[in-house]
């Protein structure tokens, strides 16, 4: 969709009421032919503060692929807090609405931050369409990639809806029936029947739905399928520095494969890519983990950017959902020496690391009697104190990065303000073949609106098609509605005369008088009400 410069600016300004301004850089004022954007790729390095980006650039010793795309800043607050949780922060990118901590793809129940209108009672926890869902309705191919479990907050924000990010059963089931063409990441165990309360074997269901189900990098490379679902770890994938390339693909490799598959659709595609564990490293105050996965993320950005520059039909957004950790190059120890410290003060200790704090756990022996040897070999630390040895020895399984991350930070003079998220603005990176990209200081919700505009889709219209209040709609047609629990696999039945309709919660499956019907979207339950796509309502005469 091509717009005149004045039209484009007006739309963006309208979308950014209450922000510090937004403009379009480089859009031609004259009536000249512009490249047509039919694809959008958003890449999200979860929890990547600007301090982590700066540190990683120094570590690499060369510019990042991200650098040339820097175009503005994004405000990250949620509907009721100055510091956002990943679920509402990712939802804002996905659907253009502020939301509440823990809420995935639904409106908040409280909206009291300055400049926000209070949420109407009828809208509380109501699902709203993501850019991915709107793109799918428009006939585009869609995909999500993450190095976390694929039903973790950010990937779920684009592909599922529920006011509790920890309800993996509800989120993963929706993803299976969301009709995406590419799903790649971790979290395979959450689709297995033995790990689910509903006891459904969703891996078998994924295969029944026509996906090539992949579990190794070689299978990913060899697949020629038009629909692929890759689960490369039972839960989260490894940090890139710790990754075994024979067992897990890199984020860049997954991104390239996704583009190869999705770009076969002449109508275009939408792809979300998350470098999930930048955030996890920041929570642990582990600078090596941050460097590991910012570099990995940047490699994925390069893949996307190279594709966009070659094909000239793809817009790219790269932006984190929030800051985390408050990383600084310099800490209390450099208070009086900060301008005298050579770069090596900060980099030399980090460059000795061969694994992240998480990866170190795999090279410690069962009784952790080899701590000093391991820390010397893999972190270059030869001056461990007795207290540090004791801390490593007593660290709980799965949390060693929280113990050794601060140790290397101290030696590298890296400062931290918190083990939690932070509320500062974050850097916006963008690319568009026609120069139409957001600049200035914008809201996180403007990211969704920009992507929707570039794809020529309407988020509001998609919501109207996908999320109709079921009881109101069916009873308005004179039908009766009943809820059936069915041992953890609930459904609703709708009856009118001789017509009987069964609608399975979190699936896109209906049964009309016993015959299966595939719907355009999933049947959703938000803990209060059930929502159905309009084509389900249309099945009742």
Overview of the molecule:
With 541 residues, the protein is an alpha/beta fold. It folds into 3 domains: 5-20 and 39-326 and 419-465, 3-Layer(aba) Sandwich (Alkaline Phosphatase, subunit A), CATH 3.40.720; 339-415, Diphtheria Toxin Repressor, domain 2; 467-537, Copper amine oxidase-like, N-terminal domain (Copper Amine Oxidase, Chain A, domain 1, 2-Layer Sandwich). It is built from 20 helices and 23 strands. The strands form 5 sheets. It has an 11-stranded mixed sheet with strand order 1-15-3-14-9-2-8-4-5-7-6, with helices on both faces. Strands 17-18-19-20-21 form a 5-stranded antiparallel sheet, covered by helices on one side. Strands 16-23-22 form a 3-stranded antiparallel sheet. Strand 18 and strand 19 form a beta hairpin. Helix 2 crosses helix 11. It starts with a helix and ends with a helix. 52% of the residues are buried. Residues 1-33 have low confidence and may be disordered.
How are the SSEs ordered, and which strands pair?
Elements lengths: L4 H11 L6 E3 L14 E6 L5 H11 L9 E6 L10 H10 L35 H7 L3 E9 L3 H7 L8 H9 L5 E5 L15 H7 L3 E3 L2 H6 L5 E4 L19 H12 L6 E6 L2 H7 L3 H25 L2 E6 L3 E2 L3 E2 L13 H9 L5 H4 L10 H9 L6 H9 L5 H12 L2 E2 L5 E2 L3 E6 L6 E6 H12 L3 H8 L1 E2 H7 L3 E5 L6 E6 L2 E6 L4 E4 L2 E4 L5 E2 L4 E3 L1 H4 L4
Parallel strand pairs: 2-8, 2-9, 3-15, 4-5, 4-8, 5-7, 6-7
Antiparallel strand pairs: 1-15, 3-14, 9-14, 10-13, 11-12, 16-23, 17-18, 18-19, 19-20, 20-21, 22-23
Helix pairs in contact: 2-11, 3-5, 3-17, 4-18, 9-11, 10-11
């Amino acid at each position: 969709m091509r717009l005149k410069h004045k039209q484009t600016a007006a739309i963006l300004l309208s979308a950014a009421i209450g922000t510090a301004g937004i403009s379009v850089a480089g859009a031609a004022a004259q009536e000249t032919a512009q490249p047509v954007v039919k694809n959008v790729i958003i890449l999200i390095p979860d929890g990547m503060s600007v301090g982590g980006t700066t540190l990683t650039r120094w570590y690499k010793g060369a510019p990042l692929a991200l650098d040339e795309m820097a175009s503005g800043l994004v405000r990250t607050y949620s509907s009721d807090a100055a510091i956002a949780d990943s679920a509402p922060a990712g939802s804002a990118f996905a659907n253009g609405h502020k939301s509440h901590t823990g809420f995935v793809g639904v409106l908040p129940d409280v909206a009291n931050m300055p400049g926000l209108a209070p949420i109407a009672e009828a809208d509380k926890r109501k699902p709203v369409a993501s850019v991915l869902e709107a793109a799918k309705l428009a006939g585009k191919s869609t995909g999500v990639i993450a190095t976390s479990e694929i039903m973790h907050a950010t990937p779920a924000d684009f592909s599922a809806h529920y006011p509790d990010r920890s309800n993996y059963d509800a989120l993963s089931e929706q993803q299976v029936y969301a009709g995406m063409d590419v799903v790649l990441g971790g979290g395979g165990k959450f689709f297995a029947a033995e790990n689910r309360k509903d006891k459904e074997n969703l891996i078998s269901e994924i295969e029944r739905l026509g996906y090539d189900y992949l579990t190794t990098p070689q299978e990913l490379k060899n697949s020629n399928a038009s629909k692929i679902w890759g689960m490369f770890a039972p839960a989260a994938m490894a940090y890139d520095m710790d990754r075994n390339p024979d067992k897990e693909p890199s984020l860049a490799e997954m991104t390239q494969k996704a583009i190869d598959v999705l770009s076969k659709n002449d109508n275009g595609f939408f792809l979300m890519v998350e470098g999930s564990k930048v955030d996890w490293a920041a929570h642990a105050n582990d600078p090596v983990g941050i460097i590991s996965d910012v570099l990995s993320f940047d490699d994925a950005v390069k893949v996307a950017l190279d594709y966009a520059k070659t094909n000239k039909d793809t817009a790219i957004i790269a932006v984190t959902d929030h800051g985390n950790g408050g990383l600084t190059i310099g800490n209390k120890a450099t208070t009086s020496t900060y301008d005298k410290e050579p770069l090596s003060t900060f980099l030399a200790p980090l460059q000795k690391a061969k694994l992240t704090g998480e990866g170190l756990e795999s090279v410690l022996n069962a009784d952790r009697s080899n701590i000093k040897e391991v820390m010397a070999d893999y972190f270059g630390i030869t001056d461990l104190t007795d207290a540090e040895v004791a801390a490593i020895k007593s660290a709980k399984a799965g949390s060693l990065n929280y113990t050794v991350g601060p140790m290397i930070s101290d030696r590298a003079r890296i400062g931290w303000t918190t083990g939690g998220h932070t509320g500062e603005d974050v850097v916006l990176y963008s690319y568009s073949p026609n120069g139409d990209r957001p600049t200035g200081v914008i809201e996180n919700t403007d990211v969704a609106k920009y992507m929707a505009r570039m794809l020529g889709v309407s988020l509001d219209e998609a919501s109207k098609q996908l999320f109709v209040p079921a009881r109101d709609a069916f009873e308005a047609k004179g039908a009766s509605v009943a809820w059936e629990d069915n041992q953890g696999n609930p459904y609703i039945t709708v009856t009118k005369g001789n017509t009987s309709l069964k609608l399975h919660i979190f699936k896109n499956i209906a049964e009309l008088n016993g015959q299966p019907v595939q719907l355009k979207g999933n049947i959703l339950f938000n803990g209060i009400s059930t929502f159905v796509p309009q084509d389900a309502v249309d099945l009742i005469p």
